[in-house]
Amino acid sequence: MSDLLTRRLALLGEPVHLPLLTQTLHGIEREGLRVDTRGHLAQTPHPAALGSALTHAQITTDYSEALLEFITGTANDPADTLQELETIHRFTSSQLGDELLWSPSMPGPLPDEADIPIARYGSSHVGQLKYVYRKGLAVRYGKTMQCIAGIHYNFSLPEALWPLLKAVEGDSRSDQDYQSARYIGLIRNFRRYSWLLMYLFGASPALDASFLRGRSHQLQQLDADTLYLPWATSLRMSDLGYQSNAQASLTPCYNDLSSYTESLRTAVSTPYPAYEAIGTKQNGEWLQLNTNVLQIENEYYSNIRPKRVARSGERPLQALLARGIQYVEVRCLDINPFLALGIDLTEARFLDTFLLYCALQDSPLLADGECQRCTSNFLKTVKEGRRPQLHLQRGEEQVPLTRWAAELLDALEPVARLLDQAHGEPVHQAALQAQRAKVDNVELTPSAQVLASLRERGESYTAFALRQSREHARYFRAHPLEASEQQQFEALARRSLDEQAQLERENDNDFDAYVAAYQASLLNLAV
Fold first, then answer.
1. Do the beta carbons of residue 90 and residue 479 sit within 8 Å?
2. Residue 305 · residue 329 · CB < 8 Å
3. Which of 106, 343, 422, 522 is deepest in the core (most CB within 10 A)?
4. CA–CA dist 83, 503 (Å, integer)
5. Is the model's pLDDT at 401 over the cut of 70?
6. How far, in Å, CA of 454 to CA of 443, rounded?
7. How confident is the model at residue 241 (pLDDT cuts 50, 70, 90)?
8. Cα–Cα distance for residue pair 25/154, rounded to 1 Å
9. What sequence ranges are listed for the domain Glutamate--cysteine ligase (predicted)?
């Protein structure tokens, strides 16, 4: 353990400061495909009973009309966050009829590309903007890979923690700049160590053979309908997922907030030849918002993002530039198909420990090729993380993944102890111990359990996922909401539909002018 980490833990462990560690905030976004009784992508519109995907705060859609996204608020205790996520699931399950929420991250059998429905958000300008953006994703990357689902874990430390550390360490930066720099440091450490999350929580070692659409690949055949890699942890996070030549040059290594925001601002304002060849319109119909490397900031695909809650009409980069980093969004988590919510409290408490460690541990700049080594270690783990004697690159040496994982878990121990001291119960140490068991016994990892289930039952990937989806649906429908909660969700749905209708009545100029103003809102910013 570094001297810096030791000092910071000691400071936060003082009785007057310990309560700060109970004030972290958590939020979860869980994606999930709607499928029919055969496990095929639902071709039905977003259910009106769920409200407006444009304006509902908790239930929306991501890329496809069939790709639901559930969004919790923030809570100090991740148990409360998961409880909120469960209520959203229970309400949604009550409104899906015969349809199911798909249990894993990778989709089952998909229709032809042309028949994968892009999410619709109505005729308001903001609704049209969201639709055209998704049309742009389709022409840039294809629709298939955007039917992949995941879990995003949002995490922030209490605002009062940063001035405390800043004062003790004699840092002369403003509070905002110090806080942003420390979150960027967290992200650098996350880049260094996030391969561990893929080993511990990766849950997509196999997929339906139709997903690859005839593309060349190096996967093996498990059965007539299933492809896999024997040691993979997360094919979702491998190069089978998002592939983008345009984004290949976009590799911000998070050495400071300004270089990160500048790289994204440049990407949303720099034309890319292949996208210029497509153009923005065809026969007067919009194809993409622009022909730049990124249409908008959120198109940049990354495992973790620095975030700031944006104000009405404000773009994500504008919020970051104006007020600095407020929280981080972890984006590399697979949905665990064995869990009804896709994530549980043990995983959440381990993530809290891991992220606090990343925030408090010394975080030197990524230099001398370390950025590429981080990427290489991550990709090696998602493709072969369970391979016996797999080695990763740590500095100048090759070390066994399991040895490095055990050492990292040892380093997390004092952080887990401190969190437990603050909360008054040993729950973070228990979560840490559950991960040690996976390092000691690879068969306990979710990816190994998925493959074991396929083999033991002689199931295809799709049959396995459909069975799990039905099981989760039965659970939610067997535990309906209280009448008052049900009525509250129904009221939220109606209100969101009214809000969408109001937005549609407020269109005050043509859509082309609206898009032009949207583009200019960022391009005119000084970074």
1. yes
2. yes
3. 106
4. 32
5. yes
6. 14
7. low
8. 8
9. 11-379
> What is the number of alpha carbons within 13 Å of residue 417 lying toward its C-beta?
10
Say how far residue 16 (Cα) sits from the centre of its chain: 34
Tokens of 190: 């996350």
Place of tokens 């659409």: 213
The percent of the chain in helix, strand and coil, each rounded to the nearest 5, is 50, 15, 35
User: If we measure between CA atoms, which residue out of 230, 195, 204 comes closest to residue 405?
Assistant: 195
How do residues 247-271 score in pLDDT, each as one tens digit? 776 766 688 899 899 889 889 999 9
What is the distance between the alpha carbons of residues 346 and 432, in angstroms, rounded to a whole number?
8
Chain centre to alpha carbon of residue 306: 12
| Long-range contacts of residues 318-321, Cβ cutoff 8 Å, at least 24 apart | 318/521, 318/522, 318/525, 320/257, 320/261, 321/261, 321/525, 321/527
Which structural domains are found in the chain, ordered by start? 3-523 (3.30.590.20)
Residue 173 neighbours by CB distance under 10 Å: 12
Query: Chain-centre distance of CA 445, in angstroms?
Result: 20
Assess contact for 333 and 151: CB atoms under 8 A: yes
Q: Report whether pLDDT(313) > 60.
A: yes
With H, G, I as helix, E, B as strand and everything else as coil, classify residue 231: coil
Residue type, 346: T
For the four alpha carbons of 95, 96, 100 and 104, in that order, the dihedral sign comes to: negative
**Predicted pLDDT at 527:** 41
